[in-house]
Structures are given as structure tokens and as C-alpha cells.
Specification:
This protein is α+β, with helices and mostly antiparallel strands. Helix content is 19%, strand content 32%. α6 (304-316) packs antiparallel against α7 (358-368).
Length: 513
């Protein structure tokens, strides 16, 4: 199963305007629990003496998960528990703007609420470290040593968790290793007092590697200029405690901490996330009127195509101002063209394939089913090429795209698809391939290895392809969606870094209600 990424930490500031005739207003913040279908209080401010335009001093710290929809309710009340007004939104909508503004629903004398979000960024610092060692023990009979080191942090489920392993330096007692870089989270879980350990080993090609020594430290100690730590071999120390000094010395030759741009830096500066959908209409889906069909429309439940569109679309709608989605079909024969087409708009508009709103996307999908003769083969190159053309019309850094391809079987144009996927790695786009049905999807392995190398020898410059199947998640669309979206923030950051694009504020704020 996919590892759950740590949440981003955000801090909310709340103020209201135009609250006429109320004393000492306060604000309750409630989180929606999808399991109980209820809003539960997570924070309550103290009453504010400013009656008309209160600004509450308390800052609300919340965990923000990009890959999940987090519904929030802000309830403004007076000290008599009278509800002045309520504002429902999502945490995604709030963080995507510098200041979210909404109308308070309820009393006729209600006002407006303003919510600003600030990311707590210490977790996004990167630490660059360069180590060297002096006078490590000679471990080889006919040489010196071939030392390397392993960096650990104190774990939860186990005593130590490995976080980095260096290269081996051949035949030396005074190795100087290459610098390495870790996020502050990876290094010490954002806790500078967390115990860390450095182990030094001697590489042996013909037998088990030999332990040289270790030292236990923390980040506070690491960051002291020109600091050195003794490598201790417990067995040698125990054997001769009076004469044994150490098995070498580790020196922190260089340590540098730098603040990096975060996903929310770009989102709050105005970068939008736009979706493009592609739906498989090959014959292996079987006729939509059959209950066994992957396209079967059940009045009581969504099929896997519909669930993918709904789950991904409803979360990413918070990050798309216009909520307009190009939607294409492939592998079918539309009645208006009478030939197999590997990239056709499901709204039948070749000039403008855009559909406004996720609900309208679902409606267009259902309406098009009787108009498409299922055919084949499964060709993805045309869809990816068309999507790349869409990305080229966007301002640099202004939009990042997710192409979501839903496919029910093996891909036939592997070589052409690889050419297009390699090209996509240089574009502001992630390619998400969702396997529906029960096929093996063995050909997809060609697309998930990194780097992808096409038939011309060109390599992908970043890992921007995601592939999951419904069956691997037991048909759970929510977990599938979370697993997909958890990778998108890193994809966006890698692209922005690749093109040296700084987060530039594109818009001051947007009203969300």
C-alpha cells in the first residue's frame, strides 16, 4: 500500500465584518467527519470585544492534506450561543487563496467572514551536510579501509531508521564523502533534539562488511561549526577501556540549511491545478447496457469511470478557478465520424472540448455512451499529444495539469506512448493512468519505470507518471484518489525547480462564496 505522506501544517487567522447588534462574538471551527456524517468542533475562540468587525487573536493550527477533501464550518456566535452566521468551505479553498472571503449565512443582519492561511514552513527546510573522517581503524589486511557511513534517526516502530547511506571511498583512513541533502523532516522529524546516529563501515567485496564505529548525536550538535565526534566501537572499548580512545573521528565539514519553496507557496501565489480526463471506449469494456459492462450506468452506484472523475475532480476543484475540464474519449467509433478515433471530445465539439463542472462532466459521459460504438485498439499516444498541446497555451508557472487516463486493458502503442510521456516530463503536467476492471495491465510497467527511455533514446527528465489499478485498492476510490494525489505536490515542485520558476503572486485574493 502507498505510504501516507505527512500533512502540511497551516495556521488560520479569522476575522469578520459587519456584525451589527451582537455582543462579544466568538467563532467555532468544526471539521466534517465523513464517517459519522457530522461536524465536530476542533477549535473555539475567546469572545472578542470588538462587536462589528471582530478579529480573533487566536491562531488555529491545522493539518492540511492536499490529497483529501477537508470540509470546514465556521460558526460565528454570541455569548448567549445565538448563531450569528455560518460559513461552510473546505481547507483546500482557504489555502488556495491569500484571503478567503465568504458571506455568513443565517441571520438577516449577518456580515462576511475573512479567513487567511499561512503555512508553517520549518518542515520544508533542506539540510545539506558534508562529512569527512580522520584516522579510522585499518580494517583490511593488505590495505587500509574502504569506508562508508550510514545515517540514522531514532524511529518509532524500531530503534533506528536509516535515512541515508554514503558512497564508499576506497583504500583510505581519511575519507571525504560527497555532500548530501535531506529535508528537515526526513533528517529529524522537525525535532532538532531527536537522537541521530552515524555508523562507519568498511566495505568488503568478498565477505560481510566490517563495523568501524558509531556516534550518537542530534541536530543541535551537528550544527555547531567545525564540530567533531568520536567513532566508538563498543566491543573494542569494552575489551581495553583504559587504552582505547576511538576508532576514528567524524568531522562535520559543512552544514547548510536553506528554505525551499513549498507546494502552497505556488498555490497561494495563484498557480492553478487543471484536470484533463480521458475515457476508454474500447470493446473490452462491453456494451454499457450489460450489467457486467465497465460502462454500465447503475442508478444506485457509480461505475469506476464515474468514481474516478468524481473523487479526483471534487478535490481538485478547489484549485481551479474556472472549473473547466477538457474530456476526451479514445478507442471508440463516434456516430458522428463513423471511424475509430483515439482522441475525440465527449461533448462532440472538436473546437472546444471543455465542460464546465464535474457534475456536467458526468452527465456528458452518460449521454455519450449510446453514441459510441466500442472498438479498439487501446492507443494512448494521441490523447497525451493532445493534452500536451493544451498545456502549451498556459502562462509559465500559472497552471499545472493532471491528465487522468482511465483505461481497461493493455496499451498497444507502447513506443509512441513512451515518446509522448518523455515529452510530458518537460511540460507542466502529470500523467495519471487509472486501470479499471480486472486486467493485468502488464504493459504499464513500461511507463512507470524512471527514467522512461523512448525509441529515440530520449529520457524523461522527471518522474511525472502515476499508475494505479482499482483492483489493487479493493475498488476503494477514496484510497485510490488519495494515493494518486499525494504525489502531485512533489511533481509540481520538481517541475517548477526544473524551469527555475519562482512563486509569483498572480492575484491578491478571490472571493469563494
Amino acid at each position: 500500500m502507498v505510504e501516507k505522506i505527512p500533512p502540511m501544517k497551516v495556521e488560520l487567522t479569522i476575522k469578520a465584518e459587519g456584525l451589527i447588534g451582537y455582543e462579544d462574538p466568538l467563532c467555532r471551527v468544526l471539521f466534517y467527519d465523513p464517517k459519522t456524517l457530522r461536524f465536530n468542533e476542533c477549535f473555539k475562540t475567546t469572545p472578542c470585544r470588538e462587536r462589528v468587525n471582530p478579529q480573533w487573536e487566536a491562531k488555529i493550527e491545522l493539518n492540511y492534506y492536499f490529497d483529501s477533501k477537508q470540509d470546514l464550518r465556521f460558526s460565528i456566535e454570541d455569548t448567549s450561543d445565538h448563531t450569528i452566521g455560518i460559513f461552510d468551505t473546505t481547507l483546500g479553498q482557504i489555502v488556495s487563496q491569500n484571503e478567503a472571503i465568504g458571506n455568513l449565512e443565517g441571520d438577516s443582519r449577518n456580515g462576511i467572514i475573512k479567513i487567511s492561511a499561512k503555512e508553517l514552513k520549518n518542515a520544508h527546510e533542506k539540510v545539506s551536510i558534508r562529512l569527512r573522517a580522520h584516522n579510522v581503524d585499518k580494517m583490511d589486511l593488505f590495505g587500509k579501509s574502504d569506508p562508508y557511513f550510514i545515517f540514522y534517526k531514532q524511529g518509532k516502530s524500531e530503534p533506528w531508521t536509516q535515512i541515508y547511506k554514503s558512497e564508499t571511498i576506497k583504500n583510505t583512513l581519511d575519507p571525504q564523502w560527497k555532500p548530501f541533502e535531506l529535508t528537515f523532516t526526513t533528517l529529524c522529524n522537525n525535532n532538532p533534539s531527536l537522537p541521530l546516529k552515524i555508523e562507519c563501515w568498511d566495505y568488503d567485496w568478498s565477505s560481510k562488511d566490517d563495523f568501524i564505529g558509531a556516534c550518537e548525536i542530534n541536530f543541535h550538535q551537528l550544527s555547531v561549526p567545525n564540530v567533531r565526534f568520536q567513532l566508538i566501537h563498543p566491543s573494542k572499548q569494552k575489551k581495553n577501556p583504559k587504552k582505547y580512545q576511538n576508532s576514528g573521528v567524524i568531522e562535520i565539514e559543512n552544514l547548510h540549511v536553506r528554505q525551499t519553496h513549498t507546494f502552497l507557496d505556488y498555490i497561494q501565489a495563484g498557480t492553478e491545478l487543471n484536470l484533463i480526463f480521458a475515457i476508454d471506449f474500447t470493446i473490452s469494456n462491453t456494451d454499457y447496457r450489460n450489467k457486467s459492462s465497465l460502462h454500465y450506468i447503475d442508478p444506485n452506484a457509480q461505475n469506476e469511470y464515474e468514481r474516478t472523475i468524481s473523487c479526483i475532480g471534487n478535490i481538485l476543484a478547489d484549485y481551479d478557478k474556472e472549473k473547466i475540464y477538457p474530456v476526451f474519449g479514445f478507442g471508440g467509433e463516434p456516430e458522428w465520424s463513423r471511424k475509430v478515433d483515439h482522441c475525440f471530445p465527449i461533448n462532440k465539439n472538436n473546437i472546444n472540448p471543455d465542460i464546465v463542472g464535474i457534475n456536467n462532466v458526468l452527465q456528458a459521459y452518460r449521454q455519450i455512451l449510446p453514441c459510441i460504438k466500442l472498438a479498439g485498439p487501446t492507443i494512448l499516444g494521441s490523447i497525451i499529444s493532445k493534452s500536451l498541446n493544451i498545456t502549451r497555451n498556459s502562462p509559465t508557472g500559472g497552471v499545472y495539469y493532471l491528465l487522468v487516463i482511465m483505461v481497461d486493458g493493455e496499451v498497444q502503442d507502447v513506443n509512441q506512448t513512451k515518446i509522448e510521456l518523455v515529452e510530458s516530463s518537460f511540460s507542466p503536467m502529470s500523467v495519471v493512468i487509472v486501470g479499471v476492471g480486472l486486467e493485468s495491465f502488464s504493459s504499464m510497467q513500461e511507463f512507470t519505470s524512471f527514467p522512461i527511455v523512448d525509441e529515440n533514446g530520449r529520457k524523461s527528465c522527471r518522474n511525472n507518471v502515476i499508475f494505479y489499478t482499482y483492483k489493487s485498492f479493493g475498488g476503494n476510490a477514496g484510497i485510490l484518489t488519495s494515493s494518486i494525489l499525494s504525489k502531485i505536490p512533489q511533481h509540481l515542485l520538481e517541475y517548477m525547480e526544473m524551469i527555475s520558476c519562482e512563486p509569483i503572486v498572480l492575484e491578491e485574493h478571490k472571493t469563494i462564496n
